[in-house]
Amino acid sequence: MHLVGKIDRLDVSEDETHVYVKVVDYKSGKKDFDLVALYYGLQLQLVVYMNAAMEKEAREHPDKEIVPAAMLYYHIEDPSVEAEEEPTAEELEEKILTALRTKGVVNADPDVVNRLDAEMEKASAVIPVTKNKDGGFTKNSSVMTREQFRIISDYAGKKIVEIGRQMMDGCVSVNPYERGDEDACKYCSYKKICGFDPAIPGYQKRKLAETEQEELLRKMAGTDIETGTGSGTGTDSVFGTGSNSRDGS
User: Fold this and answer.
1) Across-strand partners of 22?
2) pLDDT reading at 234 higher than 60
């Protein structure tokens, strides 16, 4: 199976032994990296872009280690900001920068974070990362370790193969999902002809469960997608928050 796509933006930073890779996908609507959606195969694009970018850099730099730095979404529409009182010019600029800040996931290595935002002191204006007083990252920071990046990269590759095989096998079953307020049928262009009718007994949507990040990563690391059996490769040591991890990069 051959995939064709276009990465909106690809940035690299190099040192003597590494190439650090950042991919950015421009979006007109609000979008954030969603591990649950990735797990169910609903949000694979950004990880597939990163995989392709890293393969490209590996071909061009066979003597260097290729490191994922960040996978980000950037909202391209002009932001609107609200304030109870007339803000100062500095306050207005800060609100606009906050609204424009990318969303996604960033490598938890402090050296990588510094490459992405060398001027960052507490809260970054350009990446979804905020530092604690001790220099570590807050719980709201969207960071992953190198090993976690590897896990989601491998998982996305396997999921693409699984979906591709289902398509080649002619699988066209109507199997919509629900997840909180999300509904696969809401904006579907084919809902008038697919035949799915929740009023008919036996017709129901898959309800996708909300699962904590660590548990999802364990499932991704320890599950053979094609057979659904556990491979036992996941370990608890893999799944820290990455607050001050170095990962040897």
Assistant:
1) 11, 70
2) no
Q: Which of 171, 117, 169, 172 lies closest to 141 in space, CA to CA? A: 117
> pTM of the prediction?
0.79
C-alpha to C-alpha distance for 236 and 218, rounded to whole angstroms: 8
- Res. 151: pLDDT tops 60: yes
- How many CA atoms are closer than 13 Å to the CA of 193, on its beta-carbon side? 2
Rounded Cα–Cα distance for residues 34 and 28 (Å): 17
Indicate whether 247 pLDDT > 50: no
Instruction: Say if residues 129 and 105 touch (Cβ distance below 8 Å).
Output: no
- Helix, strand, or coil (residue 132): coil
End-to-end CA distance of the chain: 32
Strands 223-224 and 229-230: antiparallel
